[in-house]
Q: What sequence folds into this?
């Protein structure tokens, strides 16, 4: 179980995957089976984040299909691309929570 974690006041410069939770990590693509268990992640806050992302995917919240992430909070997040003319985006799988204040890129959390 992971719960009651707060990351705050971080500034990124050309960082790969600035905000990430990955419960489906596999070091060899296609080699890992999906499990029916997972670490329960709840009440995680990402607050006052800014800066640039080296990857197009700036926010990746990839939670287990078996055990959802709950109580995720994105608060005052502004991430842009480190590459001129590029946009960054977010992707969420089974991640539930809220956004507070301005969040860029647009958040993808489920309520």
A:
């Amino acid at each position: 179980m992971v719960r009651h974690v707060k990351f705050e006041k971080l500034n990124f410069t050309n960082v790969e995957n600035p905000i990430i939770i990955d419960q489906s990590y596999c070091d060899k693509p296609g080699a890992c089976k999906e499990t029916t268990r997972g670490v329960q992640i709840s009440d995680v806050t990402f607050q006052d984040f800014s800066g640039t992302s080296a990857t197009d995917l700036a926010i990746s919240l990839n939670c287990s299909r078996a055990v959802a992430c709950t109580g995720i909070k994105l608060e005052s997040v502004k991430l842009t691309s480190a590459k001129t003319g590029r946009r960054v985006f977010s992707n969420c799988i089974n991640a539930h929570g809220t956004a507070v204040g301005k969040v860029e890129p647009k958040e993808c959390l489920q309520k």
User: Anything to note?
Assistant: The beta strands are 2-15, 19-22, 41-53, 57-62, 69-81, 89-93, 95-104. The chain is about 0% helix and 60% strand. Residues 2-25+40-104 form one domain.
